[in-house]
Amino acid sequence: MTDLTSWSPRALPGNKVLEGRRVRLEPLVWSAHRQGLFSALGGAAHAAIWRYMAIGPFASADIMERTVSEAITEGGWRTLVIRRLSDGKIVGMASYMRNRPDHGSTEVGSIAYSPLLQNSAGGTEAMALMASHVFDDLRYRRYEWKCDAANAASRSAAERLGFTFEGIFRQDLVMKGRNRDTAWFSIIDSEWPAHRAALTSWLDPKNFDEDGKQLRRLQDFRKTA
Q1: How confident is the model over 21-37, as a mean pLDDT?
Q2: What pTM, to 2 d.p., does this model score?
Q3: How many Cβ atoms sit within 10 Å of the Cβ of residue 112?
């Protein structure tokens, strides 16, 4: 059994800029990010991004700002905006949610990637940076990922990143007029070093060819980490 007699509460995540080779994550400031966020994630063209989430889609920048601000105020979200370093464009957002600093636990959620970020190395790097902030900077014990059990893409992404499936909460929520069963995943602190090593190796530019195609899968690096 782990001895936690010296445990102390941790700081809340999401207060600093996180920068990698491909993307930079910035704490949300509406005056700086409002129009870029809406262009990347708002409007009818991007409605499908929000299908399985509690919020969205957003018909206007005003509605987006009001909705996300309510989630930050009422739900305690710590929201980060994802900017592509190659051209400075805002390409997504993600939030630390269900923050329990007394217990060293937080969730990454409301992950919304524009088409420019989807299925890209930058998208993986964004998740690696957020996890590293939690485990390496703040020394949290637990990092959660939860999604609609019907969202096959989100479940696959969680497993690819190294999250362990913990089960399904049946009839967990009524969301947007339908039932949601919630799939739970987690990484704990003792597992993180191996996942960090695999992510670092996968994200290395030497793992990509001249066209940006991966040479080895992340799962392959994790097997040898």
Answers
A1: 98
A2: 0.97
A3: 24
